[in-house]
Amino acid sequence: MTESGVALTAAAMPGTTTATFRATKSALPAIDDGSACSWVDLAKSCENEGETVGVTVFADASFEHVGELLTRLHVAMPNSVALGGVVDEGSLMFLNDDVVRRGAVALLIRGEFELDTHVAHGARPVGPVMSLTHAHDNAVLELDDSPAHPLLLETLEQLPENSKSLPVMLGLGVSGSKGPFVCRDILSVGETGGVEVASMALQEGDVVQLHVRDGNWAKEHANRVIEKCADSAKKVSSEELGSENSTGAMIFACGNGNRMHASNFRERVPGTPLGGAFLRSEIAPLAKGRASNVLSHTSTIGIYRKRKKSVSM
């Protein structure tokens, strides 16, 4: 967490096949030559009931196309699940026999397993949900047809005193929804009242809500999320699948956030092997069936389970 190190996770998953790729731009790259999978095979797997495609993806901090790459992955494989994150500046990534410093790398696992994802947020929503009515690049210019910055200041003034001193982030959601939100740091305020946020594709019509980084709220929220992880890990019992351990987990957590989530997971879900890494930003879907996003100040958890065999009557 605080010194140089290597994150290494190993797993045995019978009945699965794997593929890897390296991306240097937003377009989907070729899959490695030695793989038994192709993009067509992976797309068909996502359509087949009983098969899952899980993607573990990492990107370096300077790779600007990670959001577009995740969108393209989801379009190519709509039912796939991507987990991972953005590594700190100067970190190394490994792909097959190569050391990678730039771009993104990914491992795709295809087979008869189940993958549940859970996200523990570090920021609490506050104030009203507003509509993004005017944006340019990564600048929020108008909310509910009013200049963004004065409206956000007004929202902050109405908060309880114990919330006004907390760091503020902007949560962006999908049009027509009331969350969950992808939170972004506010970088600057323009002369016209616009608010620039950290890299995020803004779409007019999307919903926006202020969030504050509240440590006490985040701890309670994480406890509820880990309870859901415990339920997810127990869905397949040893009586059904034999004596082998049929469940494993991965956690990718913000290195600047709560570093106790992995320990809390181990205490609450004993016996479930846990791998993962501390990262600069995390990658996960905010809801089932959604494309994955680059998240901030979260812990993302994936529960891998051996799929139960259906019994014919």
TrEMBL record:
The family database entries (Pfam families) matched by this protein are listed as:
FIST (PF08495), FIST_C (PF10442)
Which positions are tagged coiled coil?
none
InterPro entries for the chain = FIST_C, FIST_domain_N
Superkingdom to which the source organism belongs: Eukaryota
Q: Which residues form the FIST C-domain domain?
A: 148-286
Which PANTHER family did the record assign?
F-BOX ONLY PROTEIN 22
State the protein's name: FIST C-domain domain-containing protein
Which organism's genome codes for this protein?
Ostreococcus lucimarinus (strain CCE9901)
